[in-house]
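Loading example: each entry is read as three labelled lines plus one structure line.
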Amino acid sequence: MKPAVPSGVEPILKTEHLRVVYPPSRRGEAPKVAVKDLTLEVQQGEVFGFLGPNGAGKTTTMNVLLGFLTPTSGEAYLFGVNVRDPIARQRIGYLPELTYYYKFLTAEEILRFYARLFGLSRLEADRRIDQLLKLVELEHARNRLLKHYSKGMQQRVGLAQALINDPDLLILDEPTSGLDPLGRMKVREIIQRLKNEGKTVFFSSHELGEVETVCDRVAIVHRGELKIVGRVDDLVRSHQANLEQVFLRIIGYPTCLAA
Amino acid sequence: MTGRTTTLGCAALLTAAVGLAAWLEPRSEAWRGQRARADSLLWTLLGDGRRLFANHFFVKADVYLHSGYYPSIFDQARAAYEHGVGEELSMAGHDSPGEAAHGSEHEFRGAPRDWIDRLSRHFQVREHTHLEGGQTEAEILPWLRLAAEFDPHQELFYLAAAYWLRSRLGKVDQAEAFLRRGLRANPDSDEILFELGRLAWESRREADRARHLWNAAERAWYARNGAVHETNRVSLSRILAHRAQLEEQTGNLDAAIQFWTRVRELSPRPEAIEQRLATLRQRLPVAH
Amino acid sequence: MRTWLALAWVVVKELYRRKDFYVLFVLTALITLLSGSVTFFEDTRMVRYLREVTLLLIWVAALVIAVVTAARQIPAERESRTIFPLLAKPVTRGQVVLGKFFGVWLATGLALVMFYGFYLLVGVWQAAPGSLALGLQALWLHWVMLAVVIAMAILGSLLFSAPSVNSTVCLVVVGGILLVAGHLNTLAAAQPGWAGSLLYGLYFALPHLELFDVRDLMIHEHAPVAVGPFLVATLYAAVYAALLLLVAWWVFRRKALST
């Protein structure tokens, strides 16, 4: 059963006072607050950048959104459905930073497996698999076991599996990490295409130059707290600096700003 | 470190290792004991542990004889606890009082204690049967063979196998070969020599050979036991009794009387032997 | 249902693409054929010991396959990070546990069919195939017993840190149960006071896997098990497997996963 189509006003992705506290790993240590009171909304059709330095709480937030973690308090919703309900993930695609898939399966078998998890019919699955393998340029290797794939090929399989269900929301964790310039261009093209189709993209990245190019809005988190959220061009204009400099200033690193 | 230095270093280490091994080898026999002299792979690998396997395989033969109907060590321990020591030894056999065959609740397991116990009986062998007829007894032989392989110094394994081979399966040659194998491993065994003598006489009717073997058995008995005691007289008595019977059956009455006289001295019922002696004396020719 | 079936399919594919199963099968076949070619006292009529050797090898091999495969499932997914793209789909953790269980159980069942088929061939070769009805019963009982073992191993994989530890513990526990569990009531009766009560408690709590071992009946050509106890045993195994899987699900749903 698919959740109701959003009205356009209801956010595709929403967190409400999200808080995640990790218990101490050793006696005498204080619990670690990874995310503090994060309230965030992403609207349909946006390309949203989720930025922050290492340890800011980006991965933890994503893990909550994807159901890998239960928040200590607060709620998170996808398409208006609480993330604890697996149906919330019916219309999302997820590309993890490190792409590992079953090495004993072929690309076609992996895509068919994921298609089954989404409940796609055989016909629809065949159509999507052909389409995606062509998109990621893996048609020639569709029947080869993944253990014989190069790293780049495995990443392309990852992208294909993230798109298998024609998702309305794509969650990408460092999508261009480890990719060569051609690979990064491919990812940018795909994000742009999805945006043109009215899909929503939510991704974290350290490549601020790319974020500035593709994103409509960004949020910057630091030490578990949401520091700022807004449209990229508004931030750049108001700070009269590029996104990287804005980012550094927000997280408290002094920069030379043009007067 | 250059290649040449590495090579020289390796050569030096190898030389030292070989020298150390050569120096240690004769000294190692002192702490390895019998295992150092063992020529059997099983002995070398398992040491005295092989006897456990051998005993297990011997019990396995008994299990097979009863088609799987056999008390476990827990059942035997329970019987010993409930009825006293010694009861456990007769549990699988015919001597256990109150034992009934064919699925009765009063077999060695006793009445089921709970529903799990009751249910489990359906998945176990419940009939007390023996392998009999149609050469089915042969099924126990692999285990006896294995038992003897693991512990060649247990005479009982050879004797049991020889009995089944000779008496039940009609394989006299194989029985003899196995007994001789046992004799090679146990050259001083009066029991094996006795059994070979029985085979020679009862299966092959070779009287001289049987005499020779029983003489050897008697000598072996005395070499092992020294003097006759209350506890060891049965095996000697058996050798002498069979010898006496052989002499009787071959018409050597004098010799038969001699041997029966010796048996009388050892027998717990000398009056029965005396009757036999009287009969034999009557058969002697008048000149005596 | 399609979700856990899809998951099960992946597990089956993994098992028959890995070499372990074939190695075990070939070893079993080799040892059996070697044992069968040995004659004792120039007599070729001995078949029971060969049945015993073959069935022992089948039991050992099947246990190893079941435990090692089950113990590896969820930890391997976590270690190789394939758990993340999986749980990012509309899949619950319960479905993952169930899917892994059915996958390993089905795969082990296929392996058992091969092994018992080989056993039948050996019987035909020795001109003593034995009772087909009892053989089929033995196969089924063995398979449902392995359901309990697999569920145990899956639970263990969520409790122990390493698959090797889990496998060792499972094999030791299963071995102990097969050898001793049926006699715990006897031991308990001989113990005074609390020790006896504890043993009796253990006796009722443990799954009695020895119920499913009908090798003695097969070896010594006894009659098949009656239908009533056969069905009760099947139900008994189903209850235990379900219980263990329930606990596994409860443990897994509380586990935090972090990318």
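The radius of gyration of chain C is 20 Å.
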